[in-house]
Amino acid sequence: MPGRAKLLSFIRNRSRERRVKVMMLEEPELRHERIAGDGVDLHVVTAGKGPPIILLHGFPENWRSWRLQIPALAAAGFSVLAPDLRGYNLSDRPAEQNCYRLNHLVADVAALVRSTGNARACIAGHDWGGVIAWTFAGQHPELVDKLVILNAPHPKIYLEKVRYPPQMARSWYVLFFLLPRLPELVLSAGNYRAIRNMFKRGPVRKETFSDVDIEEYIVPLSQPRALNAALDYYRANLKMATLRTFARSAPIDAETLVIWGEHDPALGIELLEGLDEVAPHVRIYRISSSSHWVQNEAPAEVNRILIPFLKGSS
């Protein structure tokens, strides 16, 4: 498979560069593992020892979305698991659209928690990873220690807000992504120009993603059916009838931290309204100088808030 060979070669080259940086910065060793999920094998990057925290990335990224949090969390005494979600990068890529329904994504996370040998784990999610984390915490409170959400709406609140402007206008891309085939053609045109621009122009801090950073997302997305799988997250879950099903999850008992970049072009700050009704133990931390890619744009600030919360000292 030429495409997979190209991807593995790219990863090996980047891993060699990263090992040099790791030695220079005394960062923890990153271990690459395969862990069984809900009928799929997930590629998971692990680091550190201690209580587990599972980091769930969003669209159109992979485990590297958390590259600036993994060393800090490992140094703080956590065992970090950063999976490629199903369909992404080196994780299995089912062909059927229904394989990307939230019930399967949630079951993958449950399998990851159980793989740690611990009764519970902290769960953190950004974007689609955050939607999965919200849903997981509502359906499996017995498996969640603490919950962290970064720029991801709770399904119940999203369903309420998307019916009205301005969130309706911000969500235009969702309707586009629900179309068959056309989104793949548009997003991949010009060597994935639209996705490259998303990372270059989207952040408030324009230097957030280097060309090398962006390539680490583009190369995996260019593999056969990879972009299709990423878009199937929308197609399998964001039709109104399906969204209503997952919006009815129980209130979340876990202590919850929501970190929100205020300049998110797709998700308005009105999605923070009413969070205490779905997560009674929530605290919200807003970052005014960041957009959607908050953990990459403001990593020091995110880590400064995240780690004390997880350790119970905030």
Strand content: 15-25%
Distance between the termini: 49 Å
Average pLDDT metric: 92
Low-confidence stretches: 16-25
Strand order of the largest sheet: 1-2-4-3-5-6-7-8
Q: Care to describe what's here?
A:
The protein is α/β, with parallel strands linked by helices and 314 residues long. The protein contains 14 helices and eight strands. Strands 1-2-4-3-5-6-7-8 form an eight-stranded mixed β-sheet, with helices on both faces. Mean pLDDT is 92; it is low at 16-25.
List the helices and strands and how they pair.
Elements: H1 2-25, E1 31-36, E2 41-47, E3 52-56, H2 70-75, E4 79-83, H3 102-115, E5 121-126, H4 128-139, E6 144-150, H5 155-161, H6 167-170, H7 172-177, H8 182-201, H9 211-221, H10 226-237, H11 240-247, E7 255-261, H12 275-278, E8 282-287, H13 294-297, H14 299-311
Parallel strand pairs: 3-4, 3-5, 5-6, 6-7, 7-8
Antiparallel strand pairs: 1-2, 2-4
Features:
about 325 residues; alpha/beta; eight-stranded mixed beta sheet; 8 strands
Short description:
The protein is α/β, with parallel strands linked by helices.
